Amino acid sequence: MTSVTVLTAVYPGTFDPMTLGHEDLMRRASRLFERLIIAVAAGHHKRTMFSIEERLEIATELASRYPNVEVIPFRGLLRDFVVQHDGKVVVRGLRAVSDFEYEFQMAGMNRKLMPEVETVFLTPSDQFQFISGTFVREIATLGGDVSQFVSPSVRERLAERISKGRAE
Fold it and tell me: Over the chain, what is the mean pLDDT?
């Protein structure tokens, strides 16, 4: 028995910047679902280092090796985005126990808003468990080497952004 329904998963985040941990989850989720949407949030509640356009470019570049992965921007409620794109699963990453409480509450709220959609938690591979976009931005801003946390193209963009910021 085969299904003609494509199982669409949505992996939302600000991805500011996209780290090797995000890439790890994208790679692994792309193997679990027929269609994976990387939903790049406008970041209305956060001040981001990179614009939505830049974050979309980065995510699109990094997702290009996976034929079943699309990168789409979103703003507003995740519920509206997931329903609009026929999503059946929301993928979330859990790095540590500290992430769990927030993500558990968010999954519960999402279940109330969209009971037909499941949340799937993935933990990053061991070498990526401690990486966060916040840490990467801070290390890069303070002149540290982030090459073990992000792809080379992301590292270059970070360096350009920081040198531009210092010149201003």
Answer: 92
